Amino acid sequence: MSTKVVIVDDHFLLAQAIQELVNSFEGFETLYLCKNGKELIEKMKFPANVPDIILMDVNMPILNGIAATKIINETHPNVIVLALSVEVDEDIILGMLRAGAKGYLMKDTEKEQLQEALEQVIREGYYHTNTIAKLLVGSLVKPKEGVQLKERELEFIKHACTEMTYREIAEAMFLSPKTIEGYRDSLYEKLNIKNRIGLVLYAIRHKLFVP
Question: What is the CATH number of domain 151-205?
């Protein structure tokens, strides 16, 4: 039984090229193409149109990738969304991860890496590239394993996985902004990560935050 993939991208020629690549991978086949998130949501109302994996562009008209991923995560939590985009902005990447995307790939990804991503996301539930790490100045340094986190640190991490600013987190936790900065810096050192996206990825991987 082949793994069913749907490609969502408003650039039709690119979507067709990605379709050819996916269909060339053993064990994978493209179910259909969509030009935006709204079209995808409408199609997925029918059980026969529900795929295993969605390769989701971020910037699209009508309904973008972040909004569409949020809806899919709520209505079809077993469907895996992989972002496939040209965007390298940290806020956009964080937005896709918070919405429920299990990985973030660049559109200039090599064929072999796309195949590896599809295979790994089925096997392990997520896929994140070193390319994204480098673009974000080392966000995805491998975190230390077996670290014991205190209750307040866990609370901070959960807030950090939202769109709240650090000042807003300080207010929610009834702490000063300086204390919150201390939590942040301490966790970066303790978990061997370099910025907020690394913290979000750590939280998702360790199920401290569920999108």
Answer: 1.10.10.10
